[in-house]
User: Fold this.
Amino acid sequence: MAGTEPTSAIDRRRLLFASGAALAAGLAGTAGALLPSRRHEPSAHQPSARRPARAARPAAAYTAATTLETTARLGGPARPGSYRRLVSGPGWPLVVREELAAARSGREDRRTPLACFVQFTDLHLADVQNPLRTEFLRARSATAWRAQEALTVAGAVALVEQVNALREGPHTGLPPAFVMTTGDNLDNNAAIELEWFLTLMSGGRITPSTGDPTAYEGVQNSSLPLFWHPDDATVRDLDKRRGLPSIPGFLAAATRPVTSPGLRIPWYSTAGNHDALPGGCLSPALGDIAVGSRKLLSVPDADAAAYANALRTGDDPKSDVLTAILRRHTAETRHVTPDERRRLCTPRDYLAAHLDPAHTGAGPVGHGYTPDHLDGDRLYYSFRIAENVVGVSIDTTYRSGHYEGSLGTEQLRWLERTLAAHSSRSYDADGRPVHRPGADDAHVLVFSHHHSPSMTRRPDAARTDEPRHDGAEVIALLSRFPNVVAWINGHSHVNRVTPHAHPTPERSFWEVNTASHVDYPHHARLLELADNGDGTVSLFTTLIESAAPHRTSADFSDLSATGLASLYRELAYNAPGLAEGMRTGVQEGWAGGPGDRNAELLGITA
Assistant:
């Protein structure tokens, strides 16, 4: 991927990484793919020469539009210092991906639908007033803070509404059976954000504000020109200079209660690094700062550079660099109202909250977790997706202050045992066939937060006695089991579909990496699995947007929950430098190529 993306896309993501945007703009999601040790990925929008991708016939329209029918895109010409409104553009066609198996004629008539579900990933529900956020890193790059961050809850509610409106998958006709979240559901690892997430998914009233209930206490009314001040037209801030509007009443609207209808279908949860660590990469030892009364808004360039370097290298698991900076500049911090609800969540807290009957919603109780998982704070499990289809959710997070991912030896062995239990025929580590009579040979879909390039063997200071295993080792394990269809994940904030081909074709599988819902292009995925009756299966991936209209009100006066959800998307599309990389209305470095978006992924059945 790094070798084929547009230069502008690489530059923007590199800036997010180098500036330490992990805390204020989802570092793990943008930086994980940029490390020097990263393995080369073939670009999914330039499929292998073995079997070129081709456009399939358009799917018929059905209830609730997907990106097959229409997509949001920037309208008007791109001019420096201009803010561009969103319009409804044409949909993206289905692309048939044949790198792992040939598309045989007549399969549509032989096809047996197996499963249909939705993937959410990287919602990053953010308490933007949290004292532990480090927005001051924007001084190093305009991309290190998001203008839309205060609207994450409203935007996520609109996504729930869209899923509730989906009646059937466009390729199988099956109704979506569940939603799987693949991590970074929270942003700051805060208890209040966890409460918002669980309420979002299960239904209820959310007040996206903390601290003083009568006043906003974040960077957007700080008078610092580094940040967008929508309510104050007198502040000629960085974002107004590049075209963002003044919107009187924005902050009051953004912190106003909103009601989520909750998902009408069951949902399952997978944890990400922002769910496990403050900012996705900081030490849990910083909990006192999160619930305290001092918020640092700006620091000298030398301190910002030192902190950005600590984030870049990942060699500061105890966050000593940030702690020293905060202590040095205590006198310069803004006083904010302390709030115990901002306390950091331990893995046990995360599990217990999911198990709380108050958050059951459409089910299941625990959303994949059971009381047994409290023994050892285990955040991995398997579940039955449909008849002859099994899901496996794994926990790829470090717990000691790093945005990358890995698996511990205990979990890797559990994953191997779980796959073996559903495989009558597999291969051992040396490539020798293994037979297990009586196994059900279910199709297997694996879910995680991190994608394979962002998984490393870095030691975990929280679990020093256990070796860690990287993405290459997970790929090697999955390829031993021919009934693994796909590994579905997030973290990168990019749409990317990668074929993991094996010399023994039946051992090949797909990796489906989906973009964030906090950054452009604001997508989730609808996935459908079907048996083609000819020795192949098809996994259909269809991107969906939230239910919010593409067009916002002409004068920005609509500050209803729906209006804010539309504005949330529009602000993300107007992120610094993003429009310059839009080719034919799409920034492929983030949205992916045609074959990374709406695709039929063919594979050989076990």
